Recover the amino acids of this structure.
C-alpha cells in the first residue's frame, strides 16, 4: 500500500499548483470516440445525398449524446454529489472513505463537510477511467479547495482494502466499482466497503442502475434511488442510481 499526504510528488518535485479543483473527464477515450463518430456522420451527410438524412440524424444524436455526457462529467455529477452529501447530514467529525476516488470530486466535496473529520481516498489511478488520474493531482485539488489538511490518498485495490474492520463512518463510491471486470470482484469490493464500515455506518454508492441493483441484491439490504438527468452519461440508458445502505448494529 502506498499512502500520499504531502506537498511533493513521489519524485520529490512540488505538487502541481491549481487555482481551483479540476476533476477531468470520465472515460475520456469513450467521449472522444463518441464525438468523433458524430462529427464524421455529419460531414458524410453533406457529401452523400442518398444517405444524407439517416447520417445527419445519427450524427446529431451522437453529438447530443456527447454533449450530455460532457455536461454530466464536468458539472452534473458534481452538483448531484453536493446535494447527496448535504442530504447525508454529516456531523463534521466523521471518518469517510471514498472508493475509486480519482481526482477527488467526491472526496473533496466530502472533506469540505468534515471540519474536524478525515476523508481518505483509494484508487489504482487508471488514466483509462479518468484523464490525468494521479494521486498528486488529487492532492493538488484538495489544496486548491482548502482541505488538504483533512485528506489522505492511498494506492490500493478496493477488493482488498488496507484498513481494519469498523474503521469508517461513511463509505462513498462514484462510478468506480463497475470498472472491476468480474461479478465476483465487484461483490468483493462491496463486501470490503461493508467490512470497514463501523456499525451504524453508511454506504453511498453511485453506479449505473443494473450494477447498483446487483450490489443491493448481494448485500441483501439498502435502498435504490435514481439520481436523475443530471447524472445521465448521454441518456437515461446510462443513468446512475444511488445505493444507500446502513451497516447493522451488532
Amino acid at each position: 500500500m502506498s499512502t500520499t499526504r504531502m506537498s511533493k510528488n513521489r519524485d520529490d518535485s512540488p505538487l502541481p499548483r491549481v487555482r481551483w479543483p479540476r476533476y477531468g473527464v470520465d472515460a475520456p477515450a469513450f467521449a472522444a470516440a463518441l464525438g468523433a463518430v458524430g462529427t464524421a456522420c455529419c460531414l458524410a451527410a453533406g457529401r452523400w445525398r442518398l444517405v444524407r438524412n439517416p447520417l445527419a440524424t445519427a450524427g446529431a444524436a451522437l453529438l447530443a449524446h456527447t454533449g450530455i455526457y460532457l455536461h454530466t462529467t464536468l458539472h452534473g455529477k458534481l452538483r448531484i454529489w453536493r446535494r447527496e452529501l448535504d442530504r447525508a447530514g454529516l456531523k463534521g467529525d466523521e471518518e469517510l472513505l471514498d472508493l475509486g476516488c480519482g481526482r477527488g470530486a467526491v472526496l473533496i466535496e466530502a472533506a469540505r463537510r468534515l471540519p474536524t473529520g478525515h476523508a481518505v481516498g483509494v484508487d489504482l489511478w487508471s488514466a483509462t477511467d479518468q484523464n490525468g488520474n494521479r494521486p498528486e493531482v488529487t492532492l493538488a485539488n484538495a489544496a486548491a479547495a482548502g482541505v488538504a489538511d483533512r485528506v489522505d490518498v492511498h494506492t490500493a485495490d478496493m477488493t482488498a482494502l488496507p484498513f481494519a474492520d469498523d474503521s469508517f463512518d461513511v463509505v462513498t463510491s462514484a462510478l468506480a466499482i463497475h470498472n472491476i471486470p468480474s461479478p465476483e470482484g465487484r461483490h468483493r469490493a462491496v463486501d470490503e466497503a461493508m467490512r470497514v464500515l463501523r456499525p451504524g455506518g453508511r454506504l453511498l454508492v453511485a453506479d449505473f442502475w443494473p450494477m447498483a441493483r446487483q450490489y443491493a441484491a448481494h448485500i441483501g439490504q439498502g435502498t435504490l434511488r435514481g439520481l436523475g438527468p443530471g447524472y445521465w452519461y448521454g441518456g437515461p440508458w446510462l443513468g446512475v442510481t444511488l445505493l444507500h445502505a446502513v451497516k447493522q448494529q451488532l
About this structure: The chain has six helices and eight strands. Residues 37 and 53 are 16 Å apart (CA to CA). Confidence is low (pLDDT under 50) at residues 5-13.
